[in-house]
């Protein structure tokens, strides 16, 4: 494991972790974490390590204003997350090798679908517990939306931590047409979802699958929770991603 920093379009230093095998990687993967999470989430670490052990290089990073990355979370939004992913891919291309695989957890999965269309080297996308609409995340603080609309911003609590949400964040989410972007995508996609997910229901996976073109695949994470808190669940996801993605890698 190696820590690196790279700059996004705003000039902020974003903190990243590289998990690399002993031999040259089969391919590089880029990992987008869930809403308000970070690269140190156990699921991100476990999946990255599993892929590393199977020969992949994996770069995970903290989005703007989260974890060890610079910037103000309140001024970020879904669009800036997509841009952060594009900047991360450019960093990998310049310093190691252009990524071929994008992996996204929850809202990070939605961001990977958008980002993939602007990263020519990407041949495959993996979503894990991802919503069929970027605006799905609004249900986490829908009781605070009237206050945000009235004052322009409000502090919400997610996972025991306070985050400032501005009106621009809501407007940006509501402007995203994920289904349209996915239906026009030429990238292979693997949609992973648990039937027991209580944060993002399995119906979202069905909608994503219907919108996507072939080649598309679905992996049921039966018994897993949204955060893949059981280490065996996340290791399993990593092993399946490795086998599935190998079919779509460039030589």
* Rounded average pLDDT: 96
CATH architecture: 3-Layer(aba) Sandwich
- Major β-sheet annotation: 8 strands, mixed
Number of strand segments: 10
Coarse shape: globular
What is the CATH class name? Alpha Beta
Helix content: 25-40%
Total domain count = 1
* Rg measurement, Å: 17 Å
Question: Unreliable stretches, pLDDT < 50, 5 or more residues?
Answer: none
For this structure, the CATH topology is Rossmann fold
- Counted by DSSP, the helix tally is 8
Report the portion of residues in β strands: 15-25%
Oligomer: single chain
CATH superfamily grouping: Alpha/Beta hydrolase fold, catalytic domain
Quick overview of this protein structure:
This protein is of the alpha/beta class and 251 residues long.
Describe the protein in words.
By secondary structure, this protein is an alpha/beta fold. It has one domain (about 1-135, about 175-250): Rossmann fold. About 35% of the residues lie in helices and about 20% in strands. The chain has helices spanning about 40-55, 80-95, 105-115, 145-150, 165-175, 180-185, 205-210, 230-245; strands at about 1-5, 15-20, 30, 55-60, 100-105, 125-130, 155-160, 160-165, 190-195, 215-220. It is globular and about 55 Å long.
